[in-house]
Specification:
elongated, single chain, 73 residues
């Protein structure tokens, strides 16, 4: 994985964790954080750039979902 791709993935990981901290419910918050950590650990050894790009796009979509769910009414 290229250095810029690695940096992009780490930024995305931190953004997901940061956004998940905004859930008001403890259960949602801990579940989201656990799922994010598990998903990134599970996929840390992937070398195929197409697969990495697919996973990054999926994570970006999930970040948008989390952001929408954390917005207070």
């Amino acid at each position: 994985m290229a250095a810029s791709s690695r940096a992009q993935v780490l930024r995305l990981y931190r953004a997901l964790l940061r956004e998940s901290q905004r859930f008001s419910s403890y259960n949602y918050r801990t579940y989201a954080i656990r799922r994010i950590r598990d998903a990134f650990r599970e996929n840390k050894n992937i070398k195929d750039s197409e697969k990495i790009e697919e996973l990054v796009n999926k994570a970006k979509a999930n970040l948008e979902v989390i952001h929408r769910q954390c917005i207070s009414p």
